[in-house]
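Researcher: Please predict.
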Amino acid sequence: MPRLEPSDLAAHARIENAEVFTGVRREGKGGVLLTGHLGNWELTGSALAALGHPISVLVRRQKNR
């Protein structure tokens, strides 16, 4: 992913109901996107950021080593 341009990131991900993100931002509110650690979640966050949505990520260390 480091070699992809923002336009490439957005082209490789399908964001369903993207108007929800746009509407929330237009109202000056934030939103929460919750996802499991499966699929290509890294690409999803990067694609949303490439589309102009500010992204913050919350993580924690797993208990099993």
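Model: The chain is about 40% helix and 0% strand.
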